From TrEMBL:
Lineage: Bacteria, Pseudomonadati, Pseudomonadota, Betaproteobacteria, Burkholderiales
Name of the protein described by the UniProt record: EAL domain-containing protein
Transmembrane feature ranges: none
Domain EAL as annotated: residue spans: 24-275
Residues of the full protein shown: 516 to 804 of 806
Organism: Roseateles amylovorans
Amino acid sequence: HAAKRSQTGCQVYAPSMDAASQESLSLLSELRQAIDAGELRLYLQPKVDLHSQRIAGAEALVRWQHPQRGLVPPMEFIPFAEQTGFIRQLTAWMLHAAAQTWIDLKRQGLALPISVNLSTRDLMDQDLPIKIADLAAGVPPQALCLEITESAIMDDPQRALLTLEQLHALGFKLSIDDFGTGYSSLAYLKQLSVDELKIDRSFVMGMERDLDDAKIVRSTIELAHNLGLSVVAEGLETPKAWTLLQTLGCDQGQGYLLARPMPGEQFADWLRSWQPPDLGDARANTVLA
Ligand code: C2E
Ligand code: MG
Ligand code: MG
Ligand code: MG
């Protein structure tokens, strides 16, 4: 670690430092300041129970309200935060904000489980379970769901297994995100104490016109259910997709059909005025009839 640090130190003071690394450095210091300056925002996107048509929970998604650049989407700084290790501070901020949001919603009689995304670097942190328990104090553990991508688990499956086991023992819900896009190992999936599997949106968005996507969605739902997991379809954009997913026995959906991610403070109002979409004559018997 020391070597790595001094290497970075060399780069910092090297006169030949190129524009790209200069930009990286300023991005990192900006990100550090973003937390202190209160520029991070917690957005929420609802998940619906496809059968009862009730809102079943919400996913917390970070945004950066940058003073010059406006609202910056996570894909523009999360990968960077992961590379630099800053992600741990960001995750801690999100967990705290998610807990506050849950408590605030609960006060309004709107207690719903909230999901927070974790990254590989978080899973490598031995103290993660304790930190989460601490940051989420005041929230019943079953109301907090932690989403981890397949690839984050496969980076160091032994470590991930241990961390997820501890989180499970503490009562938190666990979800595998973007399922189908990483190197899935069914051997690990079987051992993991997870509760939920989220089908990557690429398959869900493709299933109305692509038979292969539809088959992948169908098999994933079956696999999840056979392993005793509940299954969420990401990228639910059309009434037709809702109907098809319902027919295939999918438990929950999340996507633009319900709502785009919104500032956390708007969620309670959105929830109170929520009406299930009119599924009309959206026919489920499209490609998989
Ligand atoms: P994700 O965890 O898979 O989150 C779902 C992403 O899909 C969100 O993008 C959401 O806006 C988008 N989405 C939802 N419904 C639809 C839809 O119907 N159609 C389409 N085209 N997209 C939809 P977002 O908010 O830009 O986040 C992108 C990714 O960034 C997330 O993917 C997650 O991997 C990462 N991310 C976001 N917030 C955090 C965070 O707080 N911590 C960590 N570690 N990662 C985060
Ligand atoms: Mg997620
Ligand atoms: Mg996802
Ligand atoms: Mg994704």
